[in-house]
Amino acid sequence: MKLRVEVVALDCLMVRLFDEIAEANMPWMLAASESLRAAFGEHLIDLVPSYTTLMVHYDLTALSPVQARELIAEALIDLSPNARTGGKCHVLPVWYDLSVGPELNLLSQRSGLAVAEVIRRHCEREYQVFALGFAPGFAFMGLVEEVLAAPRLNTPRKRVAAGSVGIAERQTAAYPVVSPGGWNLIGRTPAKLFDRHRDGYSLMQPGDTVRFEAIGHAEFINLGGDDTPLEAQA
What we know:
The protein is an alpha+beta fold.
């Protein structure tokens, strides 16, 4: 861990703990987040975790930048992961089908694996939620096996259906709302990933883990999934 504090704005400091993305970072990130929240208390406006950083947005009327840096330094002295600190484990049902996951064949060809094996391997791992971004409730997860990794599409789609599950490089994600997107789509989940009435809005939070579970078409529909083919939604 290489601690650095960088200025983001007059009332924001970026705490950089690592230089490279790794699943092993997350226990440290969670411990740092917990410690910083306690240190800043009511003077903390927001704390935004990401792959290797924590952005600390504090009340400038209550703390000077020097005081904020001192709180950060004190909070992270002798930092160690807490075994009791961890997120929830979510199981997301996914209907893997070419009509909603048109890049299944592409990933099969790139990897040399049968489509069924691509699906099996995508479901086999438990993925760490590293960060939320791009769209409300969009959770960046990883890391997928290298054999399943694929670059983003050269030309992003103008419209990707809510619930679409995709892969980009060694990350995987599910689109919470209809939006443009350039990830390789391999299926669709009926899960409601973003809800403004839910505490925290997003189903998943950094520090949570996710496992995908393949389901059939009938179960997908029973769970409220929209099976409109991607092309018909364009």
